[in-house]
Every structure is written in C-alpha cells, then in structure tokens.
Amino acid sequence: MLSSQGRTCKLWFHKKEGRIRDLDFLYSSKDFPDLEVGDVLEVYHKEEQFSRLLVQVSRLVEDFLPKQGNTVSVDEALAATFHLKNYGDVIVRKVPLALVSLDLLELSFKEQYVSSSDCFRLRKVLLRKCVQMNKKIEYCGIRVMVQEMHKGGERVACGYVDESTRVVFRSNSALVYIMIQMSLEMWEFDNQGDLYSEKCIDGFLPDLFKKWKEKSCSHFVSIVLFSRWFYTPEAVNGSPDSVRKHLLTNHRGEVYQDFYHLIVHNEQYEDWQPVLSKRFGLSPAKNSTAVYGNFLETLNIPLNFFTKHYLNRSFERTGQLAIVISPGSGVFHVEPALAMLTKMRSIECGTPVDLVCLGEQPFHVVPLFVFDGDDQNSDSLPSADAAKCDEQYMVPHWMNTSYYNPVKHGSSIVNVRSRIKIPNSVLEAPVCVQLKPPEVTSTVSGKNELPDFDKYDSALFADQVSVGLYSLSRKVTPSCSPRTNRRFRRRDRSVDLSLIGCPVRRKLSTRSTGPTGLNPLDIADTRFPCGSSESANGFSLEGVDSTRLLLPENVEVSDGQLIDPFSPAGHSVPISADRRRWIHVFPVDSFGFSKQPHHFYCGSSVIKAPYSSAERKVLPTFGQAFPNVETLASDGLGKEFVWAWGPTGEECWNPEIEVCVDWKSLTLPACLPITTDFFPDLETLRNDYYVSEHSILLDESVKDAWQSVGDFRADIFGELICQRLQRGFQIIQTDTELLHSAKTTILSNVGVPEYECFLGENCTYHRLALIGQTVYVSKFLPRQNTHFAECQYYYLLQGPDVPTYNACSTIFQLDRLGGINWSFLDNMIIMRGEGEDFRLTGELECFECRFMLVPFDQSANEHVLNSQNPRCDSFFKTKKNGELSYLDSVNKFVKFMEILNRLRRTSAALPAEPRKPNSYSITSEDVLLAAAFRFLSITSSHSQLPSRMIVSAAFVHWLLDNAKEIVNKQQAVAFGQRLVSMGKIRPVRTDRQCTFEYGFILYHAPGDGSKEKTGYDLSSIVEVRVVAPPTVPYRIRDSTRDRCAKELRNFRIDFDPNRRSDRKEWGQVRVGDSYDSNLAYEISMRWVVGTSSLVGDLVHNWWRKSISLGLNLVPVPIDPFVMPENPDSDPFRNPIFVPLNEAIVGSLSIQSRLSLLYHILDRFGFLPMNCFEHGRRPEFIHSSGGMLVTFSSDSLGYLWTWNPMVGLRYRSQLVTGDAQFQDKILHDLQRFCEDHEQRLSLFLQENHTVLELGKPVAS
Predict the structure, then answer these.
(1) Does 469 fall in a domain?
(2) Any idea where the DEP domain is (predicted)?
(3) Does one domain contain both 10 and 55?
C-alpha cells in the first residue's frame, strides 16, 4: 500500500510499441496491489525535488514481472524529458487528483484545420487524463502537442485534466493580417534616437519573424501599410471630379483619403526575413497622426474575410489574427458607432485583435478610444481649439495591447526609462516657458523658497475634479453603494462616468433596455453613407449635408462602457457575454483571477505579483470584502462585476504596471475557447428574452440510421452540441443553481434530463436536453435586436505587383446567426442528410471548399524554372487535341476517378501474358466480355456493389486495341450500347438502365454471384461522362454541346473510409457532370459532420495520387474574382490588370478579341474553369495551379490574381513552381500583350485563320 511519503522503487525504461504503445507507466500488481485504473502517481528521484513526473494508471500488464520486486517502468521519451535515470531509485507516491488538477492546459497544432467541434471532442478525450510537457496527442487524425500548463499561478511540467481545467487551443498555422500604421510619427524619433519606422521594420518585425521560426510557425500572412491623408478645402475644391469622388469627410469637417498598400497577401513562407527587403513606406506629406488615423476601418477590412471562415475552407490553417502596429501610444480618436460595430464584429466572429504600440506606454489606461464632441456646423478644418471640445473615453476590452521596447542599450547607466514624450512646443519654446508654480518667490537673500507642491496641485485641479465627479446629477454610484446578492439586472445598471477635467456630454447618458452586449452608440457617422443613394461617395462639401445617422434613431445608448482613463479603479462593470467570451484563454493566479502574463509589476508578471489593497475590495461585488480563495478559484463563479479595463476584467489597473509584448499571442494565436462562464440571470431572461422551442423524437428509424455501437442517443446529443460549437457557440460552465432556476421557471419541459447542455453565443443561448427518447431544444432569443445598417467604405488600394493605387469600396455589416434554421439543421443531422429534403446549402453555414483538376506540363515548368528570362508561351505543345493525347487524358481522368471512388483494379494481380492486338471479334460477345472483365475488372469494399465491374471509357479503349472490327471510338460506343440492349452488361446505377455512355460509368455482367440486383442506386458512387472536345476552342455560344460541361451533380461521400473516427463522417461532393479534356474539372465539397483533419487528409491523398497520374488537384476560391464591394469578399484582393496593346487589337471585333484572349492564355498554359455558355465570366486557371485569370470588362486585357488557396502542403517544385515561377509567367504575359519584340503582332499573323478575324460567330 502506498503511503503519503511514497515508496522507493527501481526504475526501468520501456518503448511504447506493440501491446504497450499506449502505456506510459508499467507496474506489477504484486508490488502495488491497491492501485486502481485512473490513479495518479508521482515519480521522482529523491535528490531531484523540482523534476517530478506525474503518470496515470491506465491498465495492468499481467506479464510485467521483473526479477526483483519494487520495480516500475516509464516510457523512455517521457523519462528523458523529466531527467529520470534508468536503473535508478525513484519514489513513487499516489497524489490526490485535486492537488494536481490543472487550471489551464494549452495545446498547439500545425498545418491542419481543427474546428471548434473537433476541439470539443478532443477535450472529452483528455478529461481525467494526465498530460506532460511536449506530449504529442493524436485523435481522429488531429495531431496536437502540449504547449503549456498552469497551476496556481505557476507554470508546471505535468498535471491532471479535470472538468474545471481550461483547455486552450493555439495554432502554429493561422491566417494573420499584419497592418502597419504609416502615420506621421513613423518619421519621428523615439526616446532612444531611432525612427519609429526603423523600430518597426528593423526591430519588431525581425523579432516577430524570429519567434515564428523558433516555434516552427507556418502562418498564412498578409502585410498591409495603411495611412490617412488630410486635405484642405482649397486643395479639394481645386481638384478634378475624378479625385473628389474618392474623398471622404468626417464629423469635424476634415476631408481625407485612406490608403492601403498590400505588401504580401496570404503568403506562407518558411523564412520571412526576405520580406523585409520589400519596399515599406508611404509619403508622409499631409499624413495624419496615429491618433486620428484610420484604425477602426483597417480592422474591419479583414473582418469581412474572417466572418466567412467556413467558406473556401483551407485544411492547412486554423485560427485568425489581426495585428495592428502603431507608432502611437494606444490612443485613437474614433467615431462611436464604428467603434461599437467593430467590437460586435470582432467578438462575434471570435477574432483576436492585437495592438502593438511602438510609442511609450502612457500613465493612463490603454488602449483608449476617444469620442470627440460633434461639430455639426463646421464647414472647414477645425482650429487648434478643437482639442478642447468635450471628450468621452472608452476602453476596448476586446483588444490585446503590447508595447515594444527593444533592449539595445544594455550597458547604459540609465536605469530609468521615460514614459512621457515631451511635446515639441516645450522643447522649441523660448526661455520664458514657466516650469515652476507662480507662487515660488525669491527671498531677499536670493534663495528660492520651495512651496507646498501638493497644496498647489490640489488647488489647481479642485474645480476640474469637482466638475468631473459631481456634475452628473446621478444616483449614488456603484463604487460606494451596497448591492444585493443577486445577478446583475440590466435595467439597474449605473456606472460612474467620472471624466476628470472633461465635461460629460449628456447625449450619451441614457440607459439601454436591450440584452447585454447590444449597446450601439447613437452617434452621427458622416463617413459611411447608408440607406440612400445620396452622397454615395461619402464626400460632403459646399452646401451638402454631412450629417448622416449610421444607426436608427430609436437605438438607446449605454454609458456603462465609458471610463475615466486616469482613474479606472472607480469603474467596474457587470459581467456580460462579450466580456467573458475570451475569459478561458487567460491563465489564473493563485487566487483564481484571470490575468495577462505579459503585464509586469515590480519586475515580475502580474500572475505572480501580490494583490494590492485596491484589488481586494471590488471583486466579485462592489463594496464587499475580498472573498476567500474557494469562491474565486471556480472559473469566475459568483462574480457579478469586473473591472472596466483590460481583456480579463479581473486585473486591477495600476500605473506602475509595465505592458510588454505578448509574444505568445503574436506567435501562437489562440482559438476561440469552447467554454465560457456567463449566463444571464432570471430577471434578465424574463424581461429581455423570449423562448423558442422544438423537439426531435429519436425513434427506431433514427437508431437504424446511426448504427452506433453504444448509446446512439448520446452520440446524437453530442453531435448537436458540435454543430453549435462550429457556429460560434460556447458551452456555459457556471453556477448550476442559476441554470436550474432558469429552466424550471421559464421552460415547459422540466423533466429530469439524462443529458443537458447550455450554450451561448453573445446574446443568444440554447439549452439542449435529452429526456427519454426526445431531444428538447430551447432557444433564448433577445426580444429587441439592434440592427446595424450596412456601411459602405471607400478607400484606395495598391496590391502586390500593382504600380498604382486603385479606388475600391467595401461594405461593413454585422452577420448574426439568426438566419440559421436550427430545427431543419438538427433534423438533418439526426437523419444524416439522407433524402433530397436535406441538402447542404450556404444558409446552414456548412464548410465548403472547391478544387480544380488540371493536367500539368512538367517539361514547360522546368523550362521556366531554369531560365532567367524565359518565354512562357510554350505550354502543352503536344496537346493540340490529337486523338492519342485525348485518349491519354481520358485514361488519366478515369484512374483518378477510381481513386476518388476507392475502387481497385483486380487485373493488376493477374499473371502477365502476351497481348495480341485485334485478337477478339465482336461477333463472339461472350468471349470478348470474358477477356474484357479479366483485364479491366475493378472491385470495391462497398458491400452493395457487384464483385466485378468495368468502366465504360476503359472498355472503349480496350476495344480499340483488341477488337478487330472496331476502328474508332464511335463504333466502340455503339458496340457497348448493343451489349446493354442485349442484357450482356448492365449499369450499376438504376438511372442508366438502357444506355451505354462513354466516361467513368460502371457496368457489370448479369449473374455476378449473390450480389446480383436489378440495379444499384448508390448516391455515394461518383460517375462522370466524357464529352468530345468542342469543334471550336472558344465561342461565346457553342451549338455543338447538348449539355453544359460544367453542370454539377451532388453525391454523398464518406470522409473516413479507414474508420479512424469514433463517429460516422459524411458530407456532399459536387462534381462536374461531364469531363472535357480542354477544361479544368471541378470538384467541390460541403460538410457539417466531418473531422476536419480527416477531410484534409483525404483530399491531400487525392492530390498526392493525382500528381503521379500527371494531374494536379488545385484548391481554388469559390469565387476567384469577387470584387471588394461584395461583403463576402476579401477587400484586400485587388486583381492585376494586364492590358493588350490597344493600337494592335483596337480595331478587332468583340468576338475576335475574345478569341484572341483565349488563344493567348492557351499558349501560356491556362485552362478554362467554367462553361462559357453559363458562367458569369470566363475564368481560367494555370496548369501549375498558382495563377487565376479572367477577361476585363472591356475585353481589352486580363485581370490576373494569385491563387490564395495553394499552401505549402499542395506545392511541388516541378508541378506548382514557386513565387519566382509565377512572377516569370506574369512578366512574360505582360511583355507579350505589350507586343514586346512584336510577339503579339506575329501571333496575330500566324493564327489569322484560327482566330477567325472578321467572321461572324455561329450561334
């Protein structure tokens, strides 16, 4: 029996392989008879007190019988991590689970997509398990590694995961936007004598990229420079209309333009240092300062792309991060309506926002939003007195702030670092500047008498402080009033608005009656026109009314978000859903408070710093004594109020706190936690919410569809939770009494549930309960939803390889989950999508990705790669639609479809025998068919399929080689139709009973054993017909086609053929109904029930095998050329215009120019992606997969864009090339279209007949 002091044993090492591949610890039942499965043991050397290993008893290995007693064995890799010595003496001690339970566990993963539902399932696997540092865990194809563990405010090397452990998932491969504010300060010097631009380009970015390299990060990165330029009215009125229409004006009357320079876009590099050699910089002329820059607009642009994360789903990245680098100190003058819209969008889509300030950290609260007083009658630029107008302040708690201060002067004798930048007016002023109080006088002796400075300060600020504190005419503030011991009621909220030195605008003093988290500010926003076509460009001058309301007039304003930046200790706010959305990401200290480790106090992190007296009197309620540890250590349970400052709300502000760089967040961004601890109280639910319910009966038909090994009801219940997590919901872990009172008082179905779960997404909550054979779903929805109008934003954008700025516009809007039909989605999940009624559509926010299957020309790729200035118009020289080339492309496609359908050719196992061409006659059908099935038969593990099948295209090609009377494809197809009519062969699918079609169509011979059926209606078998190449390569209309070559059909697909998952994975694959060797073949997928890693592994396996066939499966955007004005697009996508030489092609007809554009792309290796008859516009993809092209609207050139979906996992040097390969093709295409060396002119002369210049196009 193990005592509390432990037992001394001899230590062995073992390798985790064979029967013990899942065991970290082996022991003998003779030595430890009292050990049970699940017990946690501590193993350590007596002399090593700080290197202790925790292992868990998984199961007993009966044949572990060491020669001597008191012997245990530990996995050798684990032992090496904890510096254990083989054959040494160790102490083995059983420890209580509560003593070693972790507060926080951080897991990281790389180059894979892990959805929130995958995180939930992985967390369930880790519960009641021991984890150690750097431990690698694999589950259902998900590969994660233990990154960090925290317990009691300390980092630990191992621990136990229980229900209270916060599990945080961090990504090494995220979608990162680095946005650098090129404001006026970038050309100023910091306190160390460096330009802020140097501090960014030569300091912070190299340090960041070095951290990425140390952590083996492979982020998809976009780097953007942004700035705002102001103009005087005289300059504006003298500008041409082409310039005026792109100008904007704000509520102060300032006229400006916003500029964005995209350095790199969605690139994935192993080494980012070469990027620093690119041109960074904007002209500082007329530039704004960081305070008045386009900060919020810049944040909203990537949010347009982040909100649609389920579309264009990449399997190589997880998570998203917006990094804003500013030369300022974290203070921004913003417009309240846009601030609230940005906050709601950032919180709802779960995007972390990191602000990195290059300036000095001020002594007030940061980050800080300043709301200026409205000057609606201003017709010109504000004067210098504009800064004296009324101001209000808000702390954006949804932003994480860092201050970058490189240590470059380590040998300096100066130990004090100034945090105040002396204004230029003081440095440049004459000697008459008074730097001492006026009361300082000189005595007769000439010596100065020092006054009482404290008395002087008190007298000087007495009036301003009294105005700030007592001019509000409010009730007693919460900081000094007792509170009843209940949950916060929304209608009674009243927060101190002490704005020291700044009179408070009463316009914002009304209280909101809506649900928590819906507090938009009813402030005029003149920059974003909405609802009307007037002033569509947002520009207002010379008599044009510039006051336009962004929000409806009936939206009430919440004042609880305003704060006094110099005295934030007096501002505490009730907890709400938005304040607690990210709370489970942060580690907790020994008292249970969530804090940020990159905040330092007295040289140590605040996680370890002692509490000040100010912190001891606020949490969890105002005016109460500091609670005991047990109350605070339970994930915030019982807390009613938090600090208004900071992302956690549980860290008291102190001007002595030094904010450093949060390298962890910038290097390994966290995913949205799957748990939270907020749920509204009963009174809020009664007053501000209504309940919508539906139920689902789990009868025998559902049981048969699921075919679960265990309790199918539990599997269904878990899947319904997963679907909500995938759409931004979080599992609520809070006081059970609060949840119980809510359901018993408000809900009708109050039976005792076997399984129950509460979930929340901002201000929407769901309760799932399984009672008997019925799942009850209750939805708590806000009675009054605040609707933000669509805001149109105009800006100038310069993309990579684009020489100039182009005028663009986009729309900022708030996307909510109200459009999802949860009843339909739940029923579809339960029925596994069976039937035509349950079709995956975009309204369900299902995951969706798109691929193009294209051939590649390896010899042409090598020519471009190995040449300095190659000519790139030599792709597919041998293609030319020859018969042999056509049959070869069909054979490659057939082999790929066999891979897609998981079919295997049985002829590969047959002994080799000499083949005799034309050795069979079509008059002997039985002999010919027997030989064909012998050489062409394929089989599948699918239980419903026949044991032997043939593919129609392979059968046709075999007939051309082996049948005497057949000399062309048409005769072979006719013979196949005769066999079908005679009943010699039959289609596998029921919808092809009497036809023989050329393509990947499966046929079988009648009487094929016990599996013989009249037909096989299998929705999971993908069949595609092959069509002949068109008679004319390019037509606006092609009458030779009977059906559209790009018509898509839906099929079911099993994402887990190897059964690696603990559930049945399914989805839909949409493929082209027919294959044309001159077109890219489209394959797209949608799914809601699928482990993302398994789906990604399946697709990558398709890509790997397609390369061996001479094909390239390329991921592409769903809409490659969606313009920035579309709210679903990425506003930073800016196609490159490649014009044709208008002097040469200007006289050609529209049809001739279109034909010319097509033939040029064909020479450069591009294939059409869509059908010309039914596509919105002709779109093309390069055979390497990295470049996309379409025709310009005037047919005088191309719009070129890079394929943002191709990551490192889908790159092969000889197939996809590299960045230089793509640049060479773009450069040569530009030279060709410019008629460099008369290449365009010669091409027109050589192909005059083919292009049919001047001839009408047949309809």
Answers:
(1) no
(2) 950-1008
(3) yes
Calculate the alpha carbon distances from 30 to 59, 171, 520, 734 in Å: 14, 45, 68, 44
> Which residues fall within 8 angstroms of residue 519, CB to CB, at 6 or more apart?
340, 512, 557, 558, 560, 561, 786
- Which residue from 110, 144, 169 is spatially nearest to 673, judged by alpha carbons? 169
Q: Residue 734, SS3?
A: coil
Which distant-in-sequence residues (6+ apart) come within 8 Å of 909 by Cβ?
none
The answer to whether residue 777 sits within a structural domain is yes
- The number of residues in the chain equals 1259
C-alpha 499/C-alpha 496 separation (Å) is 9
Instruction: Say whether both 991 and 926 belong to one domain.
Output: yes
Which segment of 96-110, 997-1011, 1146-1160 scores lowest on mean pLDDT?
A: 997-1011
Decide if 498 contacts 570 (C-beta within 8 A): yes
Q: Do 193 and 277 belong to one domain?
A: yes
Between the alpha carbon of residue 138 and those of residues 38, 77, 101, 672, 1093, the distances in Å are 20, 16, 22, 21, 11
Q: Please, which residues bridge with residue 1200 across strands?
A: 1136, 1189
Encoded tokens for 1061: 């998952």
Structure token digits, residue 58: 């998984």
* Amino acid, res. 530: C
Neighbours of 915 (CB within 10 A): 9
CATH number, residue 954: 1.10.10.10
Strands 791-798 and 255-267 come out as parallel
Asked whether residue 136 falls in the same domain as residue 256, the answer is: no
Separation CA 64–CA 57 (nearest Å): 14
Q: Which two tokens mark 845?
A: 């926010």
Helix (H, G, I), strand (E, B) or coil at 717: helix
Please check whether residue 194 lies inside any domain of the structure: yes
Rounded distance, CA 111 to CA 511, Å? 47
CA–CA distance, 488 with 680 (Å, rounded to integer): 8
Q: Within a domain: residue 1019?
A: no
Q: What is the pLDDT of residues 389-443, one digit of tens each?
A: 578 888 999 999 999 988 653 333 345 556 666 666 666 665 554 444 455 444 4
Q: Residue 433 and residue 538: Cα distance in Å, rounded?
A: 44
Alpha carbon distance 84, 158 (integer Å) = 14
Burial 194-213 (b: 16+ CB within 10 A, else e): bbbbebbbebbbeebbebbe
3-state secondary structure of 1075: strand
Query: Could you tell me if 239 and 284 lie in one domain?
Result: yes
Residues 239 and 370 in one domain: yes
Choosing from 744, 765, 786, the residue where a domain stops is 786
Number of domains in the chain: 5
Amino acid at 860: A
What tens digit of pLDDT does each residue of 1129-1186 get? 788 888 899 999 999 888 888 888 888 998 999 999 999 987 665 556 789 999 999 9
Which sign, positive or negative, has the C-alpha torsion 1005, 1010, 1013, 1017? negative
C-alpha torsion sign, points 382, 386, 389, 391: positive
| Structural domain ending residue among the three candidates 142, 171, 200 | 171
Kindly list the distances between the CA atom of residue 719 and the CA atoms of 3, 141, 705, in Å, as whole numbers in the listed order: 44, 18, 14
Asked whether residue 188 falls in the same domain as residue 214, the answer is yes
Read off the CATH number of the domain in which 36 is found. Answer: 2.40.40.20
Quickly list H helices, 282-434: 295-306, 336-348, 424-427
Domain assignment of residue 55, given as a range: 1-95
- My answer on whether 142 and 231 are in the same domain is no
Angle between helices 969-982 and 952-962 (to 10 degrees): 120
The CATH number of the domain holding residue 284 is 3.40.50.410
Q: Which of 480, 442, 439 is nearest to 458 (CA)?
A: 439
Is 1100 buried (19+), middle (13-18) or exposed (0-12) by CB count in 10 A?
middle
d(CA 856, CA 1187): 13
